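Moderator note: this is an archived Q&A kept for reference. The question asked for a predicted structure of one protein chain; the sequence and the answer are reproduced below.
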Amino acid sequence: QYQLYYHPLMRILFYISITLNFALALFEKPAVPRLALPIWATMLMELFCLTFFVIRLLHNRRFVPNQERFWKDSKSVLILLTITVTVIDMIVYIAMNATGNQQHAIRISRILRPMFIINFAENRQIRRGMRNIRRTVPKSASVILLLLFCIGMFALLALKLFQSRNLFNPNGSPYFTRLDDSFWRLYVLLTTANDPDVMMPAYDSDNWFALFFISFMIICYFIINNILLAVVYQNYRSQLREDIAKSVFIRRKLLKNAYNAIKTWCNDGMYVTRDAWSQLMRELNKISKFRGETQIRLLWRVLDEDNKGYIGLANFLQVAELLNVEVLEVKDQIHFLQRHFPRWYGSSFSLLVRKMVLHNIFVAFVIDAFMIEFNLNRGKFENALENKIQKLGLGVSSNPLKDNVREINEDTVDRPDQLIDEIDVEINDDTQDDDMIREAADKAKIRLRIKLNKRKNVEITLQKMFEGELEIDNDDEVAADNLQDVQADVTFKNI
């Protein structure tokens, strides 16, 4: 059910329904010219959207651990209430049109349509933003009230200065003769939308009146408005940081539960072994094509840096970040000359030419400059995987897999093609795991490369933003039945 819920087709249908639900404003009365549709057409379109939303909500309920909690969740309740109000509004609207009261028929549920895009799980980032705004406003209320108070004081002062001077706006309306009108004009001036038009009648009457508007702009626009911006930014950032900390804590709690489920006794302790890791990845592959055998062993090699054959909780908690790195499998391609003219391709002259090309100064400079920029935009696990891929000779630009490991014996030492030894060949501390990775890649005839994602996942980007400010104890226990109620024990470093 979980895999079906997040199937690409289901997600596409959901976004189509959301888009169609919002696009109804183009076709419903009052519609955009030449786009108006009859009532029955718009009603059928909206009914389709609501039906899909109900199916989506009930489908989500099937794989939620706590069914009772699901119906008490505010998001589910808001979606159901919005659907109920919309259906009632549709029935009333149809009835009024059927009885000839079209002039009194009004759709009041249109303002509730944004509730769908906010409360469904696919739009959690929008919901997070709305939630943080809701929590930020009360903390910034004092500065907001201070700004409104200053505008009110200047509005009262403007009323006393200009009310008795019989001034008029360019359109002929009275100039600062009511308190509400004065407040509104100065509020708009705070956005500079009516600057300098709002001050011209007073300035034409007396040039010294310009000091009033200059004082207002200095105090309200340049001072209090910037204080408000700083306070709102700081409070919003603080709320977002706490939200990310809670998300990280929940993720680590789930990973800890998974660790406890698959750990076994090994080397005088409970650890996750290589076999348990491989079995876990293969189980995930049964659900959906997750990782190939080469990638499974490569990921383990990155986690097990010391080649102990097992990993502890600290390393296992990094699995989520490691799996976020997308590794592409590319079919190993043999050079055209190597395939059709193998003896000439392996000759001494060919090896010498390839060595010269590989050591070309200009090519090396360009590649180094690119790799520096490339690595700066990567995380630590992307770099770790890239380094391991290159070390194993599994990169796209590496030598063919069959040429990576050569056996040297008495028959091959005297051969001319041993010039290959001069081409940056190192004797490294290859392990059994490294050999198994090479064998798996050789068997599948694939190479590996890291996919450069310019559009990073929002969750990953936010976690990296606050990475240096979060300190979460990995051993904290959660005393809660539902992870939505988890309150992380989080401390923040001083910025």
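Archived answer notes: Residues 10 and 288 are 16 Å apart (CA to CA).
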